[in-house]
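As noted in the main text, all predictions were made from sequence alone. Below is one such record, for NFX1-type zinc finger-containing protein 1 isoform X2.
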Amino acid sequence: MRRSNDHDNWRSRNGSSEEKSNGDTEGGFQRHFHSRLKGTKPTPQYEVYNRSSNHGYPNRSAYNIQETNSFTRSRYHRQHSSYKPSGNIFTWDTRIGATCNAEYFNFTHLEQLDKMTSDRVIATLMKQRTEFEQFLNSTFTPDALVMTVRVLKNLCKGNFTENMTGILSRACSETFLKSLETYLMSLPFENESAAKKSNNIYWEDRNGFWKNLIEIFQTMVDLLPSKARDELPGILDKMNIIITSIENNQDYVIDKNVKTAALDMSNKLQSQLQIFEMKSAIHAKRPEELEESPPEDFRSLSIIPTKKDLLDSHPFIRINKVKEAYSSVEHYLDVQFRLLREDFIGPLRDGIDEYLNDFNQRRNKNLRIYKKVRFVIPNSDDFGVIRDGVEIFFGIKNNINWRDSKRLIFGGLLCLSNDNFNTILFATISHRDEKYLEKGILTIKPCGGTEITSEFYDSDFVMLEPKLYFEPYFVVLNAMLHMNERNFPMRNYLVDADTSTFRPRYINSTYLTFGETIFSYKGIELPVASNRTWPSAQELNLDEMQYKAFKSALTQELVLIQGPPGTGKTFLALQIIRTILENREYWLKHGPVMVVCLTNHALDQILDGILKYTDSIVRVGSRSSNPRLEQCSIKNKRSNSFIFSDSARNAQSNMHFAKRKLQYNIQEIKETCNVIENLTQENSIVSVYELQKYCRESALYELNNQDLLKRLFGFSAEYITVEQLLKHRATLRHKNFEWKSNLVEPVTRKNSTYSTHELDMPWQTQLFSKLFFSLGLCEFVIPLECIDELIHENYAQMHLCTNEMSILPFNPTTELEYDITELRKLRSKLQQQLAQHPLLTTEKNRRPQHPNWEEYWRWITISYENAMSTLAELKKRSGYLLQELKNAKEYFDLEILQEHEVIGITTTAAARLHTSIRALHAPIVLVEEAAEILEAHVVCSLTKSCQHLILVGDHKQLRPKAAVHKLGTKYNLNISLFERMINIHGDYTQLTNQHRMRPEIAALICPSIYDTLYNHESVCAYPPIEGVSKNLFFLHHEHKEVSSDHNDDTWTNPHEAKFLVAFARHLILQGYDVSEITIVCTYAGQLFVLIKERERYSILRNLRITTIDNYQGEENKIILLSLVRNNEEGNVGFLSEENRVCVALSRARAGLYIMGNMHNLTTNNHIWPKIKNVLENDNAIGDCLELQCQIHPDELLSVQSSMDFQKSPEGGCLRKCDTKLSCGHTCLSVCHVLDRKHVAEHKCHQPCRKACPKGHPCPFTCSQTCKDCLVFEDRELKCGHTVPVPCWVDSGSFLCPVMVNGTLPDCNHTVVKPCHKSVKDYPCSYPCDVRVPCGHSCELNCHVNDDPDHLTYMCQKECTKTNLNCTMNHVCKKQCSEKCILCDIKMKKERSCGHYFDCLCSEDVEGIVCNKPCKRDMDCGHKCQLKCSEICGKCQVIVEKTSTCGHNIKLKCCEEATSSKCSNECKLKLACGHPCKAKCKDPCTTACKLMVRRSELGLCGHNFSVPCYLQGTRNLLELLKYCKEPCMTELACGHICKGNCGYCKQGRIHTPCGEICGNILVCGHKCEVPCRQECPPCKKVCEVKCRHNRCNKKCGEPCTPCKEKCGWGCSHSKCTKSCSELCDREPCNEECPKLLKCGHPCVGFCGEPCPPLCRICNKEELIDEFFFGNEDEPNARFILLEDCGHCIESEGLLKWVSERSDPIQMKTCPRCKTFISKCMRIMNQIKTDVADVQAIKKKIFGDQTCLLNQQQLFVKEIKRMQENRISQSFPDLNNFLKILHTKVFPMTKKKRRQVLDVRATEATKITLNILQHVIEKLENIDPTITIYPWLNDQVVMLVQSLSIRGQISNQEINDIEKELQRLHYMAEICKMNLQIVFQHNDTVEHEIDFINLVEKLTSVHKFTEERELDIKNQIHLLTPLLDMKKVILMDNERKMIVKAMGYKQGHWFKCPNGHIYTIGDCGGAMEESNCNECGAAIGGGSHRLRSDNSLATDMDGATRPAWPL
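Prediction:
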């Protein structure tokens, strides 16, 4: 734990606990619910806060925040703990979410957010991001907007960049920026004193507001450059103008930095836009010049590959600069990002190209290929742990060990395609479980938000898996996307290539304060920033180079420490960290130390060393293999850490809450999956209650399980009475079935084994009972199993009956046989019904069923679809909840990390947690083995807070490995940051003293690799390796390499594997521990071969085997090195790389043994020849290794293969040991090194020479301990018996086992017992014969000494008493010792009212309330219809009575007959004299609608009838619609209009022409569309059909061709084409061989339908009518037309079909003209005609794809219009749009396709254009202006004139255009709003002109050009009134200002320039000031006004000042 004096520093850095907990409870999950008053409607727009009645804002209490209910989630959980998830997605969490909206962000909440820390703000807003987005799009008051800006500025300081970006992108929305822009534009016109009331916060700190705004915009530019480039230029340009206006108008100077920053940002965005446009132009014209300029911002590139990436074989990449500086951070990031991205995409691109083009390739070099991959629906069992994604089946791979395999690793990328990779679905592996992988199941998550639709489950995919692991690439690239100029670490070194050296900032700060900084190390002072002298290297116990590196590491900001193998890099790194930890007071206030490594193994090593100096360590990640570090893991800290701070507690609470929400979601998924599984269960019937969860049909809710079974099985009610069900249920209980309710068991005869109830009960009842009660226990039942079970039971009863016939009075076998027969019939029928399951059977194979079954299957289908939809939503939600839990964990982990001193992390984890790492503010970062890490990985581990970077490594050992060799060599991707910094700086510290290797081993790498490397004296004292003659040896061989079975990129060499494993065994037999030996190989494939070979030897179980790459930084005493490569081509792979060779040869301390082919290695290589020379000079190379026996040194053994080690089977030689043992024997083993003292493994195994005192020889071996003699001897015992006794046992103590009789003393029973047992203690085996108090016999053995009187005995037999309160002597079913219960047997009892009830035997029937119908007669003579328990009265029988109005009416007997209940017609007359048309019970009609002829002509000049009530109306325009005078106008089409005066709007808009067309269309139907320019497509149902199916479209639409096989044929030939194609066979002319029913030959053709008429029997009918003249020929053949049933002579029909010269039409029957569609003999001609008709249809109808696209555009346009305020203000317009929407939507309400043809599409387009014109004209009117009624009437008339029939004539268009023009002038007059002028001025003349103008506009006559010109002139005459209107408005404003100020007359004055001002109090001037407008002097002194000022009489009408009085 941290020391207490540091705690305050951490608190101050993170914010005080009081600040963080302000307004927050239970971990920040407080929810505010705003109450709504009952009966009130929700307001359409939310105001951020409500102002209270004082209208002022001097203090915050003036805000009326409406928060009536607030509670934490813990309280909610208590209240709703009983809630169980149902089928709907409606959990307790979504309930909370449903009530949260923009109202959550009230002013108080914004203030709380402003006080929080930045990271806390981000966390809060991420949880409430939906509500915050709604809030940003709502209406703002000025103070709320300013406070929102402050919150966003606070957020910009946060560290969680990814979340911050998501929030700022919402703030970059058009709505919020528009609100902000509007607010900013209002600021220059504000007056401080007035504005403070509504904009107080801004005026309190104006500069602060502008600075906050600039910081927000700057952050947006940095994080969202593209979005900022699109959204911010406009507002930034206006800001400079606004700021200038503010300074000019308000005499206030805004900070210059604000103006400069705004101008710079504006210029920067403009330049970026110009550059972007220029790049686009260059990229389009001259792509060859793009080498130095990227074509786009790298942040716009997707991390996930795209189709374009896979096709672009020459992507834009640039060389990594290894010695020069980069031009900028963006330049650096762009280069690194593109190179790293291409390093992954390049192999993927090549692999897909190889897959598509190289068919002979056995294996793909870059990809693993899986074919026939399918998406699968998971079972309910698969949801125990939620998985974020979908499951696929890729096939079972039996030859893969999934535990060790690197296939399908979590986070890996997959590419799936089902169209040969024309389209590709990219996905990542989201869950990997070995158990499921063995079954071929994998969980994946689609990338880019792709949703898996139902189509994906119906096809096979090819899946490609890149061999590169995607996860490290993804997290690093993602982290780089969030880096920019502001947060980039150590720019001066990494980008600018600065070679200067500086001290770390945390050291400098102390130095500047105190003049020096002194560190302590082992009690020695280190002057890291001082003029003092450093202690010497000897004092610090370091060599010179270690001393130099140590000093540099503590005093320089960037440190590079190179350490060749064995020089102590890790040791020095630990000493540096130790020193830093001992001086924590200098840096801990900034943050912890972070230790970064590439691998988990390296991280474990260094953290294990740090544990010696501190236990305040957190290891991030879960892949640690060191048990000592388990306590330091983040997972362990997360569960066991004691939390101090409020923020940590809140973070922990948030994490637990997110976890619980996820668990609830998992539970709902499991339940939904169970339902889906039940619905798809084969041969099952699902419970009604299960169906009701997802099927909402009312009919289903009226059923229960019993009703469902009745409907499906057709059971009669007589078989399923309650009594029978109860009887059968009791029978089932008797057969050991467990039921929940207590029912009586059947009374059976004592001698019978079955129930008489079963024999009396019909099989229907038994089956129904089984089904019914099974459904009660689970969600479904399998009825076939129930039937089989019942059949089996009947067979069993038949078998019993044959044995027990003597006790039965009847023979039941006959009835049982009948039942079995009936059950089998039912089973067969039911099996057919269940086979029609719609989810398990295709629609094609389903047959019609009983309506009840069809309805049941429909419920099943609906439930399944709804459940699947619910499951999809739940799974989608689980992804969100998983992300929420991940974020919550990340926040909590950050709190844990901040409480510790050392953080250990890998580069991948650091990149994945880059937001947390930035928030950690680690000032010191140490990177171990930095030379083997890609530069991008290291940079993503650093943050802007890094003050001290220590890089430890050796670039001459392992380098970073680029997947693409070209990128590594040509583009320098394999150059690490460590090596690049060395290249730039030149001066770095290299350690030179190696402490590891024997000198002859070190000679292999120096000077061949290192120029200087000294051997420490300790390495010269190593003893020689035992059992081998050489300490270093290279064993040359020529056994060839083998390609790995599981990976094309790796190699194996079995010979080397066998030899080295056998060699390792030999070394262990020399006495070496297994931990002192390591086998290192160069390929992963060889690793698995070595591991498999190791399993042969048990002593090698713990032998470590690893690869070179994984052994970097480690060492061991003896290294056995397998180089693997051995081929004829001399290809050695990466063994030619100096770095890997260096690592391979430098791991051993005392012994190094290498196997390989030196000829291969020295070919075309510069390293291995040098190594070979060293080996030859040391005589350490050869083709055989020499072993030396330790015991017999003269024995030398040469080994070349693993078999040669048999020469030394025990580690020595083949001589016999012959060592004399202590027992006198000699060792029989061959020569062995181990156990030379022969006390462990080599013990003596010869027979023992010792014997017992009686001479019996010892049976054990010599090395075993002698034991007691077990030889048996017959001896006589004390009791006199002779028995066998072991030799070593004393006869006197031996217990006699002989069985003897004995009499027990207590009960006198005789028992058989062992001789040595006493009769006193021996138990009696006789049963107890005592009768217990209950009357039963005791069931125990004799127990005379234990409760002989049975006082505590518990009888277990059945009770013989009757139940308590039993009235029928029912026997108790409890055990005899248990207490009897109330009788619970159900029976019928009669109540006093005469009704019977089913109740318990012990229950009083009179206590039951009788709800059965009453039997009594009432006073009126009718039977009482109430319940028996209710008081009789209020007879409900319907009778006929005479009402007070005189009519006879029917009503209830108890009701009085009044006119208010009469529904007959009223007999009264209205005031007009006409009869009332209302009903008696209703009020008389007020508006008589009887049509009456008017005495005067209408405005149209006609005399017509109107409703009576309108005779006196003054609104003559309203009457015009009743005019029925024929129009008779000649229309544009030439026809006479058939409308009337009212319908045609007095000739303004005529009704559509109704002349009938009558033309015959191509389909054969008549055109039924009235007057048209050309006939539209036919609207009738299409009659095209074939033998397979029929067309379901409208007749005018092109038909879809039938794709079924034609199948037309006979025994002679058969058509092979599809149905819609021309048949490829000629009609068969052979006679039909079949006979008719009459026995005569058929008159048809072979293979065609037989005509039903016989040539002999039906001759007259066959030739009844001569159509073609050949009918009576003896050989005439006839064709049956199946469409109409007529038989036509074949030759005549063919002639009829071929010779007709009709226009293109369908062929018809010559007799009845029915269309022919099924006659195969003329089918080719029919098909030709159909094709011609279809071609014409397509031409008439139009391209369906284009038409559908146009329909979609129509739908969007209509929705846009509906959302417009104009549409919402005019109901008729809105209703018309709704109707039009249904007409153009591509699908009808009945889910039928609806496609508009070309003409309907054009008509709809014209209609929408007209509506758009109407809306545009109305939008120009200010919403505050009242619309004139005549304008509204004009809009209604236009809308009603529009047609939705899909066509519009030129006449209609012309008429509507003129009326639109009339509407235009009406809108213009409305906009003038002259009513204000008429109300305030005496303008009678103008008002008359205005009235005349309106009359002309509303005239019933056509709107001609002359009338339009006249109206224009009149409008021009009214324009002077607009100036008068402005004056009136200004006067009104003046009066409002005077009234608002509240002064009496005489307080208003003018400055010398005429500007108005006021003097308060008494009104006398007491001081001077300056005019706000012009700066002139105003006021005065001593109640005297300045002489150049004057009274403002025109303000309040005052004639003198208020002072003097």
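The chain has a mean pLDDT of 79. DSSP finds 62 helices and 53 strands in the chain. These features were considered when defining construct boundaries for the mutagenesis experiments described in Section 2.9.
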